[in-house]
Specification:
It is a single chain. By secondary structure, this protein is of the alpha/beta class. Helix content is 33%, strand content 25%. It has 14 helices and 22 strands. The strands form 5 sheets. Strands 1, 2, 3, 4, 5, 6 and 17 form a 7-stranded mixed β-sheet that branches. A 5-stranded parallel β-sheet has the order 8-15-9-10-11, covered by helices on one side. Helix 1 (13-24) links the parallel strand 1 (2-9) and strand 2 (29-33). Helix 1 (13-24) packs parallel to helix 9, helix 3 (46-65) packs antiparallel against helix 4 and helix 3 packs parallel to helix 6 (172-183). The longest helix is centred in the first third of the chain and has 20 residues, at 46-65. The protein is globular, with a radius of gyration of 24 Å. The protein starts with a strand and ends with a helix.
Length: 462
């Protein structure tokens, strides 16, 4: 039986990070996946979706200069696949082998706490990490087996795009793809079960983005749920239930983004007793399952389904597995960006939740993009930044809507994670004109409020 210091099952973001971290520690690593390395992030998630969004943005800009031009969606889809291929070059089995990682393809099963089977082969691992990710949740309504239905695992395989689509789901994936499809000339009906899109984002920012999407031509059906679907000639008809009434939507195909389910079945995990009712792998704060020596990271463990969180969990899990000092994964500083145009980002507390937990002592500082010379100069000044602080000025949360919000939230995240009060950013010189100027403005506003509350200042005012 081949023996390894670490066996990683799943070669997506979490699995690759775990394997490379362990190799960096001088460990012998076996990485197994039923598909090619890269996982969803490379083949059907982060990377292809961003390439797709970029293509949509390019065409949308061109259409403003030349109204009436038609999009060659076959070229668009080919460009997306080319981007995937280039990214895969850095994760291929040949590259993994050069870096000291043994990669094998196949369906892995855990026989016990140290033994993994792959077909007729058996492998012993001193430690095991499960990083098998998640899959799109299926829409289960009448007629789904009769129509063309896509999700993020199939959309980027299309040779060209259909003329129309019904997109079901008002979360990040649904919103990103709905906007991109619409910009590429596909008529899109977006079905959202809530009263607005992006429920986990700042309400004002989400509503502003919603208005932008509608202005671009996206048809949004709020408080709506799919009821049934069926073929209609070369198209399909979906019946939705909206505010108690039935409505029919006709399109060439359906795209669903209604959540994710963990890829945990059929690997022997049920017999080991480490799955919860939802199918997620049970882990403690150190990413270890109830069975000593077996860890789980990424979407299969949760709670946050982001590639960057899978990466952070994987690094911590490997450190906990092999280093003498164990550390918990810190979820206080989770951050994310939805890559619409404009982007929308969130770190930590929403304002409403901060008020509930911290009361009236919080500080709320806002700055609109219209106050930024760079945004005005580029004609792209829709958006704003909101930062919530505690009594000492430390950042509890931030919400950003606007161009490059993913970059702005990253700088805010540094302050937040290191516990640096917001007002201190006002001392840091930033290049002008840039979008980061918004942080200088917010820092100065926080500094002014700090001065107002200073007892000496209050005394001098008297």
């Amino acid at each position: 039986m081949n023996t390894y210091d670490l066996i990683v099952i799943g070669a997506g973001s979490g699995g690759l990070s775990a394997a490379y971290t362990a190799v960096g520690f001088g460990k012998r690593v076996l990485l197994i996946d039923k598909e090619l390395p890269g996982g969803e992030c490379t083949w059907s998630g982060c990377m292809p979706s961003k390439a797709f969004i970029h293509e949509a943005s390019q065409f949308y800009s061109a259409k403003k200069l030349a109204p009436g031009i038609l999009c060659d969606t076959a070229r668009v889809m080919n460009n997306v696949r080319s981007a995937i291929a280039r990214i895969y070059e850095g994760e291929s089995p040949k590259k993994l082998s050069r870096d000291g990682i043994v990669f094998k393809t196949g369906h892995a099963s855990l026989l016990d706490s140290h033994t993994v089977s792959l077909g007729k082969e058996r492998f012993h691992g001193a430690k095991i990490i499960i990083a098998t990710g998640s899959s799109p949740r299926k829409l289960t309504i009448e007629g789904m087996d009769q129509i063309k239905c896509h999700d993020n695992t199939t959309l980027f395989k299309l040779k060209k795009l259909p003329q129309s689509m019904v997109v079901v789901g008002g979360g990040p994936i649904g919103i990103e793809m709905a906007q991109a499809l619409n910009r590429l000339g596909v008529h899109v009906d977006l079905v959202v079960k809530h009263d607005r899109i992006l429920q986990k984002e700042d309400e004002a920012h989400a509503l502003t983005l919603q208005q932008i999407l509608e202005a671009e031509g996206l048809v949004i059906h709020l408080n709506a749920l799919p009821d049934k679907v069926g073929p209609s000639g070369d198209e399909m008809v979906m019946t939705i239930r909206q505010d108690g009434k039935l409505k029919e939507l006709k399109a060439a195909a359906v795209f669903t983004a209604i959540g994710r389910v963990p890829n945990s079945r059929g690997m022997g995990l049920e017999k080991l007793g480490i799955l919860d009712k939802s199918g997620s792998v049970n882990v403690n704060d150190f990413m270890e399952t109830p069975i000593k020596g077996i860890y789980a990271v990424g979407d299969v463990a949760g709670p946050y389904l982001f590639s960057h969180m899978a990466n952070a969990q994987a690094i911590q899990a490997v450190q906990n597995a092999f280093l003498p000092i164990r550390r918990k994964v810190d979820y206080r500083h989770v951050v994310w960006t939805t890559f619409t145009d404009p982007e929308i980002s969130q770190a930590g507390y929403l304002e409403r939740d901060a008020k509930a937990d911290y009361g009236k002592g919080i500080g709320v500082f806002k700055c609109d993009y219209s106050e930024l010379d760079r945004a005005v100069a580029q004609g792209n000044d829709t958006g704003s930044v909101k930062i919530v602080t505690d009594r000492k000025g430390r950042i509890l949360g931030a919400s950003v809507l606007g161009d490059r919000s993913g970059e702005i939230i990253s700088e805010i995240q540094v302050l937040k994670t290191l516990g640096i009060p917001l007002h201190k950013i006002s001392r840091v010189v930033h290049p002008y004109p840039t979008y980061s100027e918004v942080l200088i403005k917010l820092g100065k506003r926080a500094a002014v409020e700090r001065l107002k509350s200073n007892p000496l200042v209050k005394l001098l005012r008297k």
